[in-house]
Design goal:
Length: 121
């Protein structure tokens, strides 16, 4: 059984979990698939899930949502959290699959949610 760094509710009230193995072995990995640059932003990640600036539907998988917290540093980077939702016996649950920094917005998927004050397109 996996240990979780956190288990919180997203902006819709759906449970979202970040597994310790995903955080340590994937996200913080120095391998090409890793994004260790997000470590200093750990305190922002739960907030970005609970109060995102914008959420897109993935164009690759219908059960995957892409959360953004915009301009999290002085360089204008956005933190991106990719969450895969699955239906379990207890209901819908989201699992963080990756987290990374970018200076661009994903513009292909449908916008599922955004703050009213933010102009996306």
């Amino acid at each position: 059984m996996d240990e979780f760094i956190f288990e919180i509710k997203d902006y819709r009230g759906v449970k979202v979990k970040l597994a310790r193995t995903v955080w340590q072995d994937k996200i913080l990995s120095t391998s090409p698939i890793g994004h260790p640059e997000v470590k200093p932003y750990m305190s922002i990640i739960p907030q970005a899930i609970q109060q995102p600036d914008v959420v897109f539907q993935s164009t690759r998988r219908k059960n995957t949502h892409i959360f953004y917290k915009l301009r999290v540093d002085k360089k204008g980077h956005h933190i991106v959290i990719v969450i895969k939702y699955i239906f379990e016996n207890t209901g819908m649950v989201g699992y963080v699959s990756t987290i990374y920094l970018t200076n661009k917005l994903y513009a292909r998927g449908d916008i599922l949610w955004s703050m009213e004050s933010i102009k996306i397109r």
